[in-house]
Amino acid sequence: MTQAKKIEITDVILRDAHQSLIATRMRTEDMLPICEKLDKVGYWSLEVWGGATFDACVRFLKEDPWERLRQLRAALPNTRLQMLLRGQNLLGYRHYADDVVKAFVAKSAENGIDVFRVFDALNDIRNIETAMKAVKDAGKHAQGTLCYTTSPVHTPELFVEQALKMRDMGADSIAIKDMAGLLTPFATFDLVSALKAELDLPIVLHSHATAGLAEMCQLKAVEAGADRIDTAISSFASGTSHPATEAQVAALKNTPFDTELDLELLAEIAEYFRGIRKKYHQFESEFTREDVSVQINQVPGGMMSNLANQLKEQNAIDKIQDVFAEIPRVRKDLGYPPLVTPTSQIVGTQAVYNVLSGKRYQTITNEVKRYLQGGYGAAPAQVNAELQKQAIGNEPVEHNRPADSLKPELDKLRKEIGALAKTEEDVLTFAMFPDLGRDFLQQRADGTLKPEALLPAEAGQGAKLGKVGASEFKITVHGETYDIAVTGIGESGADKRKIYLSLDGMPEEVVFEPLNELVADGSAKGRKRVSSPGHITTTMPGNVVDILVKEGDTVTAGQAVLVAEAMKMETEIHTSIAGTVKAVYVAKGDRVTPGDVLIEVAE
Questions:
Q1: DSSP letters along 102-164, please?
Q2: Pick from 22, 532, 551, 577: CA 20 to 30 A from residue 176's CA?
Q3: Please, what sign has the CA dihedral across residues 290, 294, 295, 298?
Q4: Which neighbouring-strand residues pair with 547?
Q5: pLDDT of 400
């Protein structure tokens, strides 16, 4: 056992805990009231930003993520604030030019971030170099990060080699990021011991509790010399989240590793968040519970809850086990990338397409194509050559640092967003999510920002349905009859009305938002249904990102005619026949569903 020392705690309640359990939906208004107590605990740091929080703020909550950071900074004056940064990807899903990376880090530091946990999804160290230097230039703590995974090529020796390169970049500490809960206690001891033998830097363990092993892993890490552990306050702990803060504090109390944190104060904080969690019950999922099968499918906690939520939106939640089984196969084909954003989305979305289409790689997402071209960096192991050929044909594979091919883009982004951006932070929001960011800034300018609706506490509790007052009726769709109970009317406007309803006696209610126009065959906005080879549709529900043809264009079989986005990943839609574009039935931004004719090609 290593020499004993006080163990430091980073609590992830304001970022990773709710990302892992309620799809990143906690609002700033529910964080601020407890900040005074959080600030008194004596945490080494609080993780408050990064990851999917930026996306969720803009996409769902209609909050300015920069304003959230400023408010938290003001409310937590005595505690280091920490963020997760995806290296050259920052908080988006592509690599950005170096000038954007430098500007983003500088503004994040200026607005309140003290500690930057910088990682690359492939552990390609070249992809974190610019960000690490930017953190050091800002005078902040640069934490180099090892994305832990298991495969034939991921060994303790490889991780030590990568950590030494991070040290040489100026890393102030090294984090082991076990995003899927793949570590086992003795593997943890060996890895931390190997790192401590070669590095004179603090070692941090971030391990999700998905497999039920994280608490034991943290104790073995402490024994091996780790300096700090990541935990989550108990009301948002365990399952796909993290070990409970109070439990780990209690486990180390009155030992040479005592954290010296106040259990009574932590209990008060836990009670507050226990009440807050009920507010977000609609985002809870059975797939965020403890499940040792993660040692097989390797799906991270945040990915698990978001994947379940997205499959619900696709009306395909019954396929989730098939998707979990497909994920390791896709991962092997792609050379065993660790499953962390954006590779978790790349692998997970491709697995969904493979399952829902009924044929593996019938549709290949643009991100998989970019990955196989080297657009995200070097794959840890050899990729499937046949798949690579199918995806990119004879196009060259990039072997240099991907960002080397990117020209400075900050000035271009400023011009593109124009007057909608009131600050440099607004420009960076637009940079992270061009379409979402523009919509957000436009809605802010118009005064129409409105967060997604939260179901009332009674919704989802079948025993309380009676007190709401329900109207019951039957509805027949395609020959199937359903019993419907409308239990309440939510917000309404000129173009929509949200209805809380119970379907066939199921205790959970859902929010039903009818389309503006319905036609007899069930398709939206009067669109045709697919009935001939020239009718082009999509595999999954999503949004139109771009239309690549217009009426009258001549197209060849296999040509891309449209780009759609589903589950945050873009996919090209191709025509199966050659001919002339007879009609285009959609516009950029339209919501589309499988079976609707989007473009019609005549031979």
A1: HHHHHHHHHHT--EEEE--TT--GGGTHHHHHHHHHTT-EEEEEEE---STT--HHHHHHHHH
A2: 22
A3: negative
A4: 562
A5: 92
Strand segments, DSSP code E, in 446-547 are 471-477, 480-492, 497-503, 510-512, 535-536, 542-547
Q: Tokens 């009920």 — which residue?
A: 278
The residues near 449 (Cβ < 8 Å, ≥ 6 apart) are 62, 440, 443
pTM more than 0.90: no
Q: How far apart are CA 271 and CA 107, in angstroms?
A: 34
* C-alpha 224: how far from chain center: 31
Report the distance separating Cα 89 and Cα 96, nearest Å.
6
Q: What letter would DSSP give residue 6?
A: P
Query: Cα–Cα distance between 326 and 320 in angstroms, integer?
Result: 10
**Confidence band of 568 (pLDDT split at 50, 70, 90):** low
Measure the CA–CA gap between 322 and 299, rounded to whole angstroms. 13
3-state secondary structure of 69: helix
Give per-residue pLDDT as tens, 347-387.
Answer: 988 998 898 888 899 889 889 999 999 999 999 999 999 99
Q: How many CB atoms lie within 10 A of CB 75?
A: 17
> If you search the block for the tokens 């290296």, which residue do you land on?
87
What DSSP letter does each residue of 441-462 carry, written as one string? HHHHHHT---PPPPPPTTTT-G
Average pLDDT, the chain: 86
Report the alpha-carbon distance of residue 55 to residue 23 in Å, rounded.
11
8 A C-beta contact, residue 162 and residue 124: no
Q: What residues does 228 pair with on adjacent strands? A: 8, 204
Q: Which helix (H) or strand (E) holds 428?
A: helix 424-432
574 vs 97: which has the higher pLDDT: 97
Q: Is the pLDDT of residue 397 over 70?
A: yes
Residue 78 and residue 596: Cα distance in Å, rounded? 55
Q: Is the dihedral of CA 429, 134, 92, 414 positive or negative?
A: positive
Integer Cα distance of 541 and 95 in angstroms: 26
% of the chain surpassing 90 pLDDT: 64
Helix (H) or strand (E) holding 73: helix 65-75
Q: Using one digit for the tens of pLDDT, what is the confidence trace for 21-44?
A: 998 999 999 999 999 999 999 999
Angstrom CA distances, 401 to 182, 238, 342, 376, stand at 28, 37, 17, 8
Burial 100-139 (b: 16+ CB within 10 A, else e): bbbbbbbbbbebbbbbbbbbbbbbbbbbbbbbbbbbbebe
Q: Which two tokens stand for residue 38?
A: 């959080």
Helix and strand element counts for the chain (H, E) = 21, 20
Contact 440, 427 (CB under 8 A): no
CA distance 234 to 362: 43
pLDDT in tens, 493-519: 444 444 444 444 333 334 444 443 333
Residues with Cβ within 8 Å of residue 267, at least 6 apart in sequence: 246
What is the spatial distance between Cα 3 and Cα 225, in angstroms, rounded to a whole number?
7
> Tokens representing 12?
């992830």
Environment class of residue 552 by beta-carbon count within 10 Å: exposed (0-12), middle (13-18) or buried (19+)?
exposed
Residues 6 or more apart whose Cβ sits within 8 Å of residue 166: 125, 128, 132, 144, 145, 174
pLDDT at 541 over 80: no
Q: How far apart are alpha carbons 582 and 531 in whole angstroms?
A: 15
